[in-house]
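Hey, I'm writing a tutorial for new members on how sequence and structure tokens pair up, and I'd like a real worked example in the thread rather than a made-up one. If someone can provide the structure for the chain below, I'll link this post from the tutorial.
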Amino acid sequence: MTDLTGVPTLVTRRLVLRGPERCDLSAFTRFMTSAPSMKAQGETVSAEQAWFGFLAGIGHWHWHGFGFFTVAERRSGQPVGRVGLIRHSNWPDVELAWHLFEGAEGQGYATEAAEAVRTWAKERLGFDRLHSYIDRGNTRSQGVARRLGAVTDGARAPHEPDAEIWVHDL
């Protein structure tokens, strides 16, 4: 269990949000290569591409000072997904994003973890606004955004035409 980023640990009632560790790679690879949610969006990748994505996520922390936290259940320590802040080079704004691993959906983990990340982003990083780019057919993620208080006017993300821009005013 070696944190590869030196990021803070956030703790909620049921979850621990921590930096990615080597042991997280297998769950991340399984998610990226075969999760039904990834298949439904046509976004599955090869195991090699998942490995590169995992490493890019670590680099993101070093470059920006923020990135995806690994979300684990407090009780079991089992990773259940990733929630965090991302900003790729061609994106106009910082995104608050969430991905839950298969079997972890529908338990409120994304909302609980995103609330912790949002608070951290405001208190520690000084953000007053975040965005979520959510595919217009992804009703589950839209529900998370609504529970977080985000709103959309239906405008599309310039870097992802099928995604609506959801705004989180902090």
